[in-house]
Specification:
With 516 residues, this protein is mainly α. The protein is built from 26 helices and two strands. The protein is elongated, with a radius of gyration of 36 Å.
Length: 516
C-alpha cells in the first residue's frame, strides 16, 4: 500500500480486547479476509445505528412530553412512555447478545433505560452491588424504583427490603405507590419502628388472605404491633379500645374454625377405618353425615355447604356468610353444647367489621329462621295445650330458641341482632345470591337455586307462626330468658329484653291459656 492510504487506515475492535480498545488494520482488504475483523466492524456499526435510533426516539419522546394535553396526539401518554421503554429494550438487547454489553451499559445510561441497567448489572457484573450503588448515587429515585420493580418481579423480597433499609424514604415512596405490596410494607414499617402503620397494614391486608393460618398469624402480629405502638396512658382511650376490639373480633373467628373442624373430625367416628383419603371425599362424607337432610329438600344449599366445608378442611378462609351457613344448617343439634352454634353464628356476624348491611340482614334472618325451624313447634304446641306451668317452663327451656335467645342476651347483643319469628321470613333477592355465588364456580350452585331452597324454610315457618302459636311462645321465652338473666345479675328491676322492641314484643304477646 502506498503512503496515500496511510491516512485512511481505520481502527476496529479485536476479539479478546476490552471495550474501547481497537486494532489497526494496515489494509482495508484485511477486514474482508478476517471474519473476526469483519464481525468487529459490523458490531461497531450496530452500536452506531442503535445510538442513532435511540437519539431520534428520545427526541421524539421529549417533544411529545412537552406538548400540552390539547396539542398531544396520543390517546394514552402512559402507553407512549411504555412504548419508548420497549424501543430502548428492543434496540439495546441485541447489542448485549452479540457481546457488546459495554455499549448496552453506555446507551442505557445515556437514554435513561433504568430497567435495562438493572438487568445488565445483575447479568453481566461479578459484583452488581457496586454498580447498583453507583447508579443509585447518579440517578436516584428513578433507578431505585426500577431496581425495586426488578426485585418484586423476581420475588426477591428479602433483597427488596434489605436494600430499602439503606434508602428508607425511597422505599416508603415506592410502597406508597404500590398498594398491592402492603403485605410487605409492614415489615419496612417495623424496621423503622413505625408500629402503628405496620399494625394497620396487617389488619387491612389480612382481609384478603385466603389461607386461614396465614391470616391468623397476620392478625396476631398486627395486634402485637398495635400494642407496641401505644403508651400506657393511651390504654383507656376509645380509639385504643376500638382498635384492640377489632383485632380481637377478627381473631375470635378462628375459634369457630377450630370448633367446626372438631365437629367434622368427630363425624368420622361413624365410619371407623373407612375414613376417605382425599379432602373432597371427606367433605362429601361430612356433608352426608351432618347436613344430610338438606340434600333432598334443599339441594343447592347442600352443594354449597359441601363446597364450603371442603375449603375449610383445606385450610382456606371462609366469608362471614359461609361460616354462618356452616354453623346453622346442620341436620341435628342434639345437645346444649351443639345449640350454641346459633349464638356463635350471631357473634360471627357481630364481630365482622367489613360485612355489608345486606349480608348482615340476610345472616340475622337466616339464623333466627333456622332457630325457629329446628324445634318441632307443631309437636310442642300439642303437648303444651293442657300442660302445667312447670311443664310449660321445662319444655320451652329445652328448645333451641330458648338457648339461642339466652346466649344472645348474655352476650349483650344489640337490638338489630334479635328478630322475632314473624320478621324472620326469607326476603333476599336473586341479585344478592348472584353476588354470593359468583366467586365459587360450583356446579349445581346457582342464585335461583338458593332462592328456591330458602323459600322452603319460609313455608314451614309460616305454618309454625300461624297454627302453632310460635309467636306467642317466643314472647314467653323472652320473659323466661329475661328472668333468668335478672336473677343471675341480682337485679330486681323489671325489664323484658335488651332493647325496647323486645320489651314491647314480650308485652304484646303474653302466654295464652295453656288449655287453648
Amino acid at each position: 500500500m502506498d503512503t496515500s492510504t496511510a491516512g485512511q487506515r481505520r481502527r476496529f475492535p479485536s476479539q479478546g480486547m476490552t471495550a474501547g480498545q481497537t486494532e489497526d488494520f494496515t489494509d482495508e482488504q484485511d477486514i474482508y479476509e478476517s471474519p473476526q475483523a469483519l464481525w468487529s466492524v459490523l458490531k461497531n456499526q450496530l452500536v452506531f445505528l442503535a445510538d442513532h435510533i435511540l437519539s431520534i426516539e428520545h427526541q421524539r419522546f421529549l417533544w411529545s412530553e412537552g406538548l400540552t394535553l390539547s396539542e398531544s396526539t396520543s390517546e394514552d401518554p402512559l402507553a407512549e412512555h411504555a412504548e419508548y421503554g420497549q424501543v430502548r429494550t428492543a434496540v439495546i438487547q441485541p447489542l448485549v447478545e452479540i457481546g457488546r454489553e459495554d455499549a448496552g451499559f453506555s446507551l442505557a445510561e445515556k437514554y435513561h433505560g433504568y430497567a435495562i441497567l438493572v438487568e445488565l448489572a445483575f447479568n453481566y457484573e461479578k459484583n452488581p452491588n457496586t454498580r447498583i450503588e453507583y447508579y443509585m448515587d447518579k440517578f436516584g429515585t428513578q433507578f431505585g424504583f426500577a431496581l425495586y420493580d426488578y426485585y418484586v418481579s423476581k420475588q426477591r423480597y428479602y433483597d427488596f427490603l434489605k436494600h430499602g433499609q439503606a434508602h428508607p424514604e425511597m422505599l416508603n415512596q415506592y410502597l406508597t405507590q404500590h398498594k398491592e405490596l402492603q403485605g410487605l410494607a409492614w415489615l419496612h414499617d417495623v424496621y423503622q419502628k413505625q408500629y402503628a402503620p405496620a399494625s394497620q397494614k396487617l389488619l387491612d391486608t389480612s382481609q384478603y388472605e385466603s389461607h386461614a393460618q396465614t391470616r391468623q398469624t397476620m392478625l396476631s402480629l398486627g395486634k402485637l404491633a398495635f400494642l407496641a405502638s401505644i403508651q400506657p396512658e393511651q390504654l383507656e382511650l376509645s380509639s385504643t379500645v376500638d382498635t384492640q376490639a377489632e383485632f380481637d373480633d377478627a381473631l375470635d373467628v378462628f375459634s369457630v374454625y377450630q370448633r367446626l373442624r372438631e365437629q367434622y373430625e368427630a363425624s368420622f367416628n361413624s365410619v371407623d377405618d373407612k375414613v376417605p383419603k382425599t379432602t373432597e371425599e371427606k367433605g362429601e362424607l361430612i356433608g352426608q353425615t351432618l347436613y344430610g337432610t338438606l340434600k333432598k329438600s334443599q339441594p343447592t344449599l347442600y352443594h354449597l355447604v359441601v363446597y364450603q366445608l371442603t375449603r375449610l378442611l383445606q385450610g382456606f378462609t371462609l366469608s362471614t356468610e359461609d361460616l354462618v351457613e356452616l354453623l346453622t344448617l346442620k341436620s341435628h343439634y342434639d345437645t346444649p353444647q351443639q345449640r350454641i352454634d346459633f349464638g356463635l353464628a350471631l357473634d360471627v356476624l357481630r364481630q365482622s367489621h367489613t360485612l355489608s348491611d345486606e349480608a348482615r340482614d340476610y345472616g340475622i334472618r337466616m339464623i333466627w329462621r333456622r332457630v325457629c325451624l329446628l324445634d318441632n313447634w307443631e309437636h310442642i304446641d300439642k303437648s303444651l295445650r293442657r300442660a302445667s306451668d312447670e311443664n310449660l317452663t321445662n319444655t320451652l327451656k329445652d328448645t333451641t330458641l330458648y338457648a339461642t335467645l339466652l346466649f344472645a342476651r348474655e352476650q349483650g347483643m344489640s337490638q338489630e341482632y334479635f328478630v322475632c319469628p314473624t320478621d324472620a321470613y326469607f326476603d333476599s333477592t336473586s341479585q344478592y345470591f348472584t353476588h354470593r355465588v359468583e366467586p365459587y364456580h360450583v356446579d349445581k350452585v346457582t342464585a335461583e337455586g338458593l332462592v328456591r331452597d330458602h323459600k322452603v324454610d319460609t313455608k314451614t315457618l309460616n305454618k309454625y307462626t300461624g297454627k302453632c302459636r310460635l309467636t306467642t311462645y317466643y314472647g314467653e321465652i323472652l320473659r323466661m330468658v329475661n328472668t333468668s338473666i335478672r336473677e343471675a345479675e341480682g337485679d330486681e328491676e323489671e325489664h323484658w329484653g335488651p332493647d325496647d322492641h323486645l320489651t314491647e314484643f314480650a308485652s304484646n304477646h303474653p302466654m295464652m291459656d295453656v288449655e287453648g
